[in-house]
Amino acid sequence: MKMKTNSALAVYRLWLSACILIVPLLSCSFFGIPDYELAVTVKEGVQGTPANGQHVYKELTTVEYAYTAVNYLHTVEVVYEGARLAAEGSFTVYTNVALEARLVDIRATWKITLAYADTTTAAIEAIITFSGHDVLSGTFSDDRGYSGTWDGASNKIVITYDNWEKYVLTGTLFDMSGIWANGDGSGTWSATRQ
Q: Per-residue pLDDT tens for 153-181?
């Protein structure tokens, strides 16, 4: 009978020794779970997390991010590996990556398409260039010789033509799309940065 007790004690000691050796291995990279770097750039006028700088995460870690504008009239976008994302969300780490949080700035050249609600009328396309002293408003001109003003506060955009009938385009700044009207007709619009 004594032999069985010693035998059980020996098995228990062997199991305990194995646990003591294995547990530390689980908490390190012994099993090949690599670390990856996240390079975060937070531009002027933006605040949030993760903070500006280099961060290290284990592979397959879900990283949540959230950024806001210091000035509530500004709109924030996140550029993650070349893709524009909303100012709040998450992603899974699988390699070294970069993230940039910045203010939406439309001052550039865009291709704009105006589609009529009456689908029998052909859509209008133009190349439009937005300019201005800051990211909130300015002037624009298109390749057809028309021009006007734009306002892009609080993720809303209003584009008002001064010399093309009564065309007014409204929508969301982040998406650069919305609806338009000119007094006689209406429809939707969208723009793509060139």
A: 999 999 999 999 999 999 999 999 999 99
